[in-house]
Amino acid sequence: MRSERPRICAPIGLRRFGLVSMAAAYLAACGGDSPEFHDAGVDVASLSSVSADTVEGLLVVANGGLTLQPCGSAEVAWVTEARGADLRKAADGLSVGTGTPVLARVFAKEFTPRQDGPGGAYGSGIYVLQWVFLAEDTSGCPMPPAETEQVTSTAAEGEGMPVLPAGVTLRALGNEPFWNLDVSEASVRVGRLGFEDLEFAVTGPVVEAGIRTWAGEGGGHRFELLVTEERCADTMADRTYPYSARLTLDGQQLRGCALEAPAGN
Question: Pick the residue with more confidence: 214 or 93?
Fold first, then answer.
């Protein structure tokens, strides 16, 4: 099955142009003002000078966001999109379930996600200006052989992990929906996709039976974070963390993984 989004301003694009040219023609004919940016870990100023190109890979739709693994690459990138690009909406129209990869070709810019943003667990990001096509058949997108054991071993030794911002001593993060929590000496900051960040005064940790607990409240919100020393797999980022995490925020339970900053951070 293939889903093609109607183009009101360039309805003949798919018939008269190749895939790359169609996307370029759409942007030239319909762009007008520059696309608006969603504030989802994207540095707007740095992207203004970045050239756009076509990217093809396996797109995964999760409850909290999108990821894309380019064909032939072992790296999974965080995906965010220009206002009106409607990639998520188009992907939802396919018959595959949440979390099942689909083949996607998009016209996009590459960027590095902010470490304190929802895509901070990923080493690269793709900012989608326009989707070109989506297909349920992924056989045309070759992938390198899986290296699960190597990735797991490296991650267990603390390598290949996200670099935490200065002053952050511990980060917890999870998917579906995407969230992260940074613990520093001064505060605890909770970030969620589509919501304003929340900040709490540091309370904890309390250590009991090998579980560290931070808790606090303020501004009408309440949180509790439990961190347990056990290996935790983030399958979307293909990483294994040394700790599991459970965040309860205003009564909602969110599960994920955690890592600590190196000594002296």
Answer: 214
More confident residue, 244 or 162: 244
Could you report the per-residue pLDDT of 41-81, keeping only the tens digit for each?
A: 566 567 778 888 999 999 988 656 788 889 988 888 888 88
Where is the domain boundary, 135, 170, 185?
135
Range of the domain at 43: 2-135
Give residue for tokens 């290949």.
160
Q: What is the pLDDT of residue 158?
A: 46
Q: Where are the beta strands (DSSP E) in the chain?
A: 2-3, 53-62, 65-70, 77-81, 102-111, 125-135, 168-174, 179-184, 187-192, 198-201, 206-208, 211-218, 221-228, 232-234, 239-241, 243-249, 252-260
Q: Is residue 41 within 8 Å of 33, Cβ to Cβ? A: no
Residue 174 belongs to a domain: yes
- State yes or no: pLDDT of 124 exceeds 70: yes
Task: Give CA–CA dist 187/214, Å, rounded.
Answer: 11
Instruction: In whole angstroms, give the CA distance from residue 82 to residue 102.
Output: 20
CA distance 9 to 30: 6
Residues in the chain: 265
Sequence-distant (6+) residues with CB within 8 A of 244 are 227, 228, 230, 231, 232, 255, 256, 257, 258
Token reading at 70: 């380019």
